[in-house]
Write a structure and sequence with these properties.
It is a single chain. The protein is mainly α. It is built from 8 helices and 3 strands. It has a 3-stranded antiparallel β-sheet. A hairpin with a 5-residue loop joins strand 2 and strand 3. It is elongated, with a radius of gyration of 18 Å.
């Protein structure tokens, strides 16, 4: 199973904020630069993470993005489901419906595989992914090289 780029970016942004001293305090622009992600993409991801209660955003002096306590204990499976949405692995209907759809078992098999994929991530939290000794390594990896 392959995650969308949006979900990948969402997971990376939340992990980056989790390893920041104090859980964040970075601006969206700083996160985008540190992660080498386009600013517009980062903005969309941060907005969705805010909607999900994973990130708090404060404006002004001393503001920035901060990971919430809830986000630290959130299941990666739950977060991936929320960021991915309810889409099917394959689309059998649509503008050109598949002629096999009435007798095909592939859609059900792929849905079960998708559920198994998410379930395998349900026992992993954001905190599990960023706990020591990985914290220092993750901060170093996210630093953008100088030009």
């Amino acid at each position: 199973m392959q995650l969308t780029r949006f979900t990948d970016l969402g997971l990376r942004v939340i992990m980056r904020l989790a390893v920041s001293p104090g859980g964040g305090g970075l601006t969206t622009s700083q996160v985008a630069d540190a992660m080498a992600i386009p600013y517009t993409h980062t903005t969309k991801v941060v907005l969705r993470l805010r909607e999900l209660g994973m990130v708090e955003a404060r404006r002004g002096r001393g503001g920035g993005l901060t990971i919430t306590d809830r986000a630290r204990v959130t299941s990666i499976g739950w977060l991936a489901r929320e960021l991915e949405g309810d889409g099917e692995v394959v689309v059998c209907e649509g503008t050109t419906p598949c002629p096999l759809r009435s007798a095909c078992r592939l859609r059900g098999a792929l849905r079960r595989a998708q559920n198994a994929f998410y379930e395998s991530l349900d026992g992993v939290t954001v905190e599990d992914l960023v706990s020591a000794p990985d914290t220092v390594s993750m901060l170093a990896l996210s630093a953008r090289p100088s030009d």
